Amino acid sequence: MHNLKKIVLLLFLVSTFLLSTSMAGRQSKFVNMLAEEVDAAFEEISVEGEAIHERLLRANTKDYGRYDPTPALVKPPFKLIPN
Questions:
Q1: Is position 51 within any domain?
Q2: Which residue, 3, 18, 67, 68, has most beta carbons within 10 Å?
Q3: Cα torsion for 55, 58, 59, 61, to the nearest 10°?
Q4: Banded model confidence at residue 13, pLDDT cuts 50, 70, 90
Q5: Residue 5 lies in a domain
Q6: Alpha carbon distance 1, 3 (integer Å)
Q7: Is residue 46 part of a domain?
Q8: Has residue 59 got a pLDDT over 80?
Q9: Across residues 40-62, what is the average pLDDT?
Q10: For the chain, first and last CA: distance in Å?
């Protein structure tokens, strides 16, 4: 009976090892479907992005005036307060 347990355990380990190595190089169907969905979504985004980019290129930037950033707040010089 004790030898039977060892043989069963050995067969289980060998079959697990063979199954894991046979599955290691193969892509699953789920990964392929997920990759196709991502590619389709990327194509939709790129089409929308091209339309938006085209509209931005046609915008007249002279309508907005010149770039003049607001002045930065500068800390005033330290002044001693007389007692």
A1: yes
A2: 18
A3: 140
A4: confident
A5: no
A6: 5
A7: yes
A8: no
A9: 68
A10: 100
Phi-psi region of 69 (alpha: psi -120 to 50; beta: other; left: phi over 0): beta
Mapped to the 3 state alphabet, what secondary structure does the chain carry?
CHHHHHHHHHHHHHHHHHHHHHHHCCCCHHHHHHHHHHHHHHHHHHHHHHHHHHHHHHCCHHHHCCCCCCCCCCCCCCCCCCC
If we measure between CA atoms, which residue out of 39, 42, 21 comes closest to residue 31?
39
- Among candidate residues 53, 72, 56, the one with its CA nearest the CA of residue 64: 56
How would residue 62 be classed by pLDDT, with cut points 50, 70 and 90? low
Show the tokens assigned to 7: 């043989």
Residue 50 lies in a domain: yes
- 14 has a pLDDT exceeding 80: yes
Q: Tell me how many domains the chain contains.
A: 1
